[in-house]
Design goal:
Blueprint: E1 3-7, E2 10-13, E3 18-25, E4 33-39, E5 45-53, E6 56-60, E7 68-73, E8 78-83, E9 92-99, E10 120-121, E11 125-130
Parallel strand pairs: 2-11
Antiparallel strand pairs: 1-3, 3-8, 4-5, 4-9, 5-6, 7-8, 9-10, 9-11
Length: 131
């Protein structure tokens, strides 16, 4: 059974850092892309970042490029989201999810950041950034 467990959220001041973890159970990263999504109060679910095995690559929303880094530790079957230079607008519940690897597209938003392409979801972890 595919399971995901997200952790690492908390309260941080603007400009600070947090590292989120997504532990995977019942599968390995060879066959799944892992995405991070967030949902702020009153807003829809937004794709933040993805790490994909085939083709190997990482994807970021424009709003977090240069501030967030996604990486995996295959030995621990865990994907991390390092979040630096946090802003109050980063406040949200963050979710990790697993889905099939997808081919990148030449134009338009990357499908790897669409929640519709993910089948398995972990519980959320709350990130609150104070100003």
């Amino acid at each position: 059974e595919v399971q995901l467990q997200a952790s690492g959220g908390g309260l941080v001041q603007a400009g600070g850092s947090l590292r989120l973890s997504c532990a995977a159970f019942g599968f390995t990263f060879d066959n799944y892309a892992i995405g991070w999504f967030r949902q702020a109060p009153g807003k829809g679910r937004e794709g933040v970042s993805c790490i994909s095995p085939r083709p190997s690559g990482t994807f970021y929303a424009d709003s977090v490029k240069g501030r967030f880094t996604i990486f995996s530790d295959n030995a621990k079957n865990t994907v991390y989201l390092q979040m630096n230079s946090l802003k109050p607008e980063d406040t949200a519940v963050y979710y990790c999810a697993a889905g099939p690897p997808l081919q990148p597209v030449v134009e338009g938003p990357p499908p790897q950041l669409s929640y519709k392409n993910y089948d398995h979801w972990g519980q959320g972890t709350l990130v609150t950034v104070s100003s």
